[in-house]
Amino acid sequence: MSVKSLDYIRYIYQMVSGQRSDDEREVADRRSAEIASVVSRDQHLRILDLANGRLRPQYTILKAAGANIVGIDLVNHPSRSATDLAYVAARRLYMWKLGISPRSLEPGSLVCGDTAILPFHSETFDVVTSVAAFEHFLNVPAVLAELHRVLRQGGVAWIGIHLFTSLSGGHNFRLAEVPLRTVPNGVDPWDHLRKRRLPFHVPLNEWRKHQYVELFAEKFEILKEYTATREGEELLTPEIERELADYSRDELTCRSFVIVARKYRSRQNY
């Protein structure tokens, strides 16, 4: 059996065992609590899931909870290739592990589109959320400008980022454990920041934490920014720290980074 086949088996096991669905539910619960603390509970919020992904777990969780939500991604197009059918099965598996019945979901609002050229009117949404997508955007400023445009004044952006500098930031299929606790035999920790022997399986912009914070701060009031999950602390030896001296220990061990930001109510304030 090939290494790639073993990696896919490992990924499927994580879904069946509930590791990935538990992580998605935790993200959703945290987001719900943090948005509720800054947005009126009386509002029927219109939400945009920016880059919902093929599995679209966050879109599904929000839709099942009755949210008025739209998801946008280039993968939201009708197709019946073998890959698409596999993702249909994977989505059903996710729903089963999340305790969501496919019958409970009303017809969805999934738009096929470019996140850097959003096909929505300005100030359409009360909340924009994005989970594990910003690290893949190759034109982050353009995406953020569009996010800002479609968010109403006083609206909130809740953004979760899988940092490139983290142990699993290279997004290789062999590093699919969430959070990553061990690396496969023959793989160096933080390979993507060192020798780059493993290929990247998806587009990555390689942005660092401070770059995201600085860009958001240009257009938004940052309400909160924090590390949601860490990984790799037990693997970060003094030797590796010296080799990666350009990166802080915080950057190297921060897997999931969250920015909660509010669009200024008055245009003259930014």
What is the secondary structure topology, with strand pairs?
Blueprint: H1 3-17, H2 19-36, E1 46-50, H3 57-64, E2 68-73, H4 82-98, E3 110-112, E4 125-131, H5 140-150, E5 151-162, H6 209-219, E6 220-230, H7 238-243, H8 249-253, E7 254-263
Parallel strand pairs: 1-2, 1-4, 2-3, 4-5
Antiparallel strand pairs: 5-7, 6-7
What does this structure look like?
With 270 residues, the protein is α/β, with parallel strands linked by helices. Residues 1-7 have low confidence and may be disordered. It is globular and about 50 Å long. It has eight helices and seven strands, in the order ααβαβαββαβαβααβ. The chain is 34% helix and 20% strand. The chain has helices spanning 3-17, 19-36, 57-64, 82-98, 140-150, 209-219, 238-243, 249-253; strands at 46-50, 68-73, 110-112, 125-131, 151-162, 220-230, 254-263.
